[in-house]
Amino acid sequence: MSGPILAIETSCDETAAAVIGRTTDPGRPWIILSSIVASQNDIHREWGGVVPEVASRQHVRDICGVVEAALEQAQVAASDLSAVAVTQGPGLVGSLLVGVAFAKAFGWARGVPVVPVHHLAGHIESLVLAHGEVPLPAAVLVVSGGHTSLYFIPEAGRYRLVGRTRDDAAGEAYDKVAKLLGLGYPGGPAIDRVARQGNDRAYDFPTARLTHADRNAPQATAPAGLLPADVARRVDFSFSGLKTAVLRLVRELTGAPASGKAADGNALAGALTAQQVADIAASFQRVVVSVLLDRTFEAARWLEARSVGISGGVSANSRLRADAEARAAQYGIPVFVPPLALSTDNAAMIGAAAMRLIALGASGVGYEFNAEPGLAL
Ligand code: KG4
Ligand code: ZN
């Protein structure tokens, strides 16, 4: 299996295809020959979030054109491909199915193996596409609309989950708070933008600490022995309390009733001044970013990591990027973040994760595997 591979990603609302090739440099083993992303943002914006049924139908419309464009841009003929990689999960089942069905059909028609890939392994390996092999062991935070998961990577291709969110993902909190502030969808980039005009100390939002050791406390995510018990509890995440605190503040500032159905945006947000919106966005963002970085770097130190990685859609955040650099200098651990095009969902990262599996001996599968919306890593 030495030729380039075609990679396909359709786990949520981006239809993406890429062609990834190999180099002879072990420090930078893979190269992006093309990467095409058809975003459905404009379609879902109207509904304030991703509508699964609409997303899968749009994937069906877009997938052939996106794959053709990826092959064309890479100047690679379908007959030159040595494998097809596809996101198997996690994600929306209807969306995943489109990519999986396409990959199986393509693989079967061309007589090449299909390599199913975990979406988060893709986000992790996006770091290698961007920066080459990172020093190991590494602590990598995958922070997106669906996940806030911290992995320990003792050696290439081994991913050990050490922390994750108990409720909302950080990107989901961004999206919900943006909706509440009338900033539209997707919320992350909108909050990132307006926060620049705001005072990040204007409001004091709480930080959820999952440190209580009583017997009703949820078990820490980190496997026993990897981290001291109190540290293991500290490196899980929770963002739903923060989201509720923002809702409470918005109700207080606008004089809306303190309870009732969670208001979504415009009605309440219309009563806020632009400065209030900017201050809330900046104060919310300060808490999210500091929680993400505190826990990631604390885990990295305990794990004696030689590098920290941050990937996934939220790693596009300008404050997270700037503060991560400052934290890296403070801790003396280098931090790696992918460029914007590799932060949010794309197929190049799925190709990279497949290359990793192939390098470790995977030979691809038959066509019996299926989309797994809850696939674990
Ligand atoms: O990785 P991704 O494209 O899809 C998932 O796998 O979820 O991440 C999408 C998430 C959304 O929640 C979006 O609001 C967030 O990433 N995001 C951002 C920024 N750009 C995208 N969050 C904060 N700041 C940004 N600049
Ligand atoms: Zn993602």
Descriptive notes:
The protein is of the alpha/beta class. It has 13 helices and ten strands. The chain has a five-stranded mixed sheet with strand order 3-2-1-4-5, sandwiched between helices. Strand 6 and strand 7 form a beta hairpin. The model has no long low-confidence stretch (mean pLDDT 92). Bound molecules: 5'-O-[(R)-(carboxyoxy)(hydroxy)phosphoryl]adenosine and zinc ion (ZN). Zinc ion binds next to helix 4.
* Through-space gap between termini: 25 Å
Instruction: Spell out which ligands are present.
Output: 5'-O-[(R)-(carboxyoxy)(hydroxy)phosphoryl]adenosine, zinc ion
Determine Rg (CA atoms, Å).
21 Å
Give the overall silhouette.
globular
Task: Report mean pLDDT, rounded to a whole number.
Answer: 92
What is the succession of H and E elements? EEEHHEHEHEEEHHHHHHEHEHH
Task: Compute the number of helices.
Answer: 13
Major sheet: arrangement of strands: 3-2-1-4-5
Structural class call reads alpha/beta
Sketch the major β-sheet. 5 strands, mixed
Beta strands, count? 10
Helix percentage range = 40-55%
